[in-house]
Amino acid sequence: MNDALKTRLAELRDLQGLLNLATWDQETYMPRKAEAARAAQLSTLQGLYHERLTDPRVGEWMEREAPSSPDEIATLRVLRRERDRAVKVPSRLVKAIAEGQALALGAWRQAREQRAFSVFQPKLEALVALRREQADALGHDGERYDALLEGYEPGMRVARLTPVLRSLAQKLEPLIAGIEARPRRPDALAGKRFPVDAQWAFTMELLPAMGFDLEAGRQDRSIHPFSNGLAATDVRLTTRLFEEQPFSAIFGTLHEGGHGLYEQGFSPDDFRTPLAQAPSFGLHESQSRLWENLVGRSRPFWTCFFPKLAAHFPTQLADVSLDDFLASVNRVQRSFVRVEADEVTYNLHIALRYELELGLVRGTLEVRDVEAAWNQKTKALLGLEVTSPLEGVLQDIHWAWGEFGYFPTYTLGNLYGATLFAAARRALPSLEAELSRGQLLGLRDWLRENVHRRGARLDAEDLVRAVTGHGLRDDDFIESLKARY
Known about the structure:
Layout: H1 3-28, H2 35-54, H3 56-64, H4 70-86, H5 91-114, H6 117-138, H7 144-149, H8 158-181, H9 196-210, E1 217-221, E2 227-231, E3 234-239, H10 246-264, H11 281-295, H12 299-312, H13 322-329, H14 346-362, H15 370-382, H16 408-427, H17 431-436, H18 441-450, H19 460-468, H20 475-484
Parallel strand pairs: 1-3
Antiparallel strand pairs: 2-3
Helix pairs in contact: 1-2, 2-5, 5-6, 9-10, 10-11, 11-16, 14-15, 16-19, 16-20
């Protein structure tokens, strides 16, 4: 590959890292009064990235390339996909979206503080309009959402995704009903308070146990947990802590830690190239959901880590057995908040958001009506009456980021994660015994070898098929739920 193109690819990765740093800081330590300045900074950085990616010389360099290795072929394929999308969107619109995201984020925070969707509504209306314009600029065959979905899950389309989500919901409903009909243990943690400093200390034990390198990353606190990879040697995670909800921090850390392991696991040979990234957000979510649920809710995992947790909370857990604790960990109950949802009902939350997003992007649902629509769908899908926008339309940060098309990747991640974990169990016969001893690195290393190191060399479904023998399906996920519940 010619030196000019290599240099430009490295510059693009560096700029992306700086963009990620600015957005991470925006969610953690940035002063409140800096919101407008950060919006302008992000707009400028995003504009620079777009200009360097769409530079006509990049197209000329690519055309002159005669790739001499599979990695060079893969690099050009990934670059061409991103660049082909970028050249269709004018720089003006790129900058406007970046600025709109930053301003919407501040409005979302204020709306949460005031418990008023109306505070967020104008900024969300602006973002929805910008994303519709972006989808039309990118081009589509009548379904705007496809153009946005492509940015998160290349190759996925509404025509395929809708049946996948509907089929899954149909399989989950009787499973949920059957679980709800059975007697259940009382929640042994209900009414207890768990000091957040002790929660934090426990989460900081979990990360190195998973194999997350704290000298190449860090964890902080934010309103909504997220992860950000600036480079494989600089991965930022966040979690959130509530005294009455210790699982929020625990599973938030396991979830974001799964993302972090992916970001730290790319091959060093791929640093500052397009290959040092996941081929899709669905595959990235497969890693977070795998660690959060398939590992983090399992008996083998807590056989080792429950005594460690009890050491942090000797009073609160003194009369709680492992069986009682596992019953609380795996309590299936329809709930309002997606990130606190159990693994059985979780995908109903995704179906709700997907249907609303489709309406917003198509133009059949207006932003002014989205709160009422959210509440109606919560009643229909989850049987719950929303009483506060914090447990309804304002709970997720994704729309403040302008991420229309992202939510379905969580369900795709659940499906891919279950398939990959089933393959890991076949490949590692002693996996459960290792987990029960707190030895998590065997699983981390298997994922690193089979998923992380491959980077973006294969598309997501092709990678899963290469590792497991088949692509996207819900059988492994449903079987994992039946086995546990």
